[in-house]
Known about the structure:
Blueprint: H1 3-29, H2 47-67, H3 84-103, H4 107-111, E1 113-116, E2 120-123, H5 127-146
Antiparallel strand pairs: 1-2
Amino acid sequence: xEAAEARRLLNVFLPAVQQEIATTRKVLAAVxxxxxxxxxxxxxxxxxxxAWHLASSDWWFLDSIARGxxxxxxxxxxxxxxxxxxxxxWYDENVPPALERLKGLSDEELARPIEFFGVxxxxxxxYLLMMMLHTAHHRGQLSSYLRPMGGxxxxxxxxxxxxxxxSPA
Length: 169
């Protein structure tokens, strides 16, 4: 991939990434306090584990793209993350700076090939698409937990029963 082409892809992906981050933040904020242990099935992640996976993965993708390499991260939820509020605070503190770092990459850094655990090698900027798909998948899982936990489902790609889309004027 040519460097100028990588910049064009960043310009295409960046507004969507920013919107996905804002939407993920809304879903994380909607997890009801005290319901972090909820899971719909014994094989499912708890709400806290899923929220942490969602939040930390957004950061991990952005950081890995900026560093030019993917490395396995820590498994599980860190001891200091005990509540959904802790996850949200961590997200607010860590994801925006990682996004800013990504925005500062040179065209050449955006175009550099990065290996993803021996599965695929592609230009750095193309991993933003993988990030968005991963985020949408896990955010969908977490949003399906919200009502059974007693929470409200925010608008994601349109209105929800709890946050209807505005009526056309």
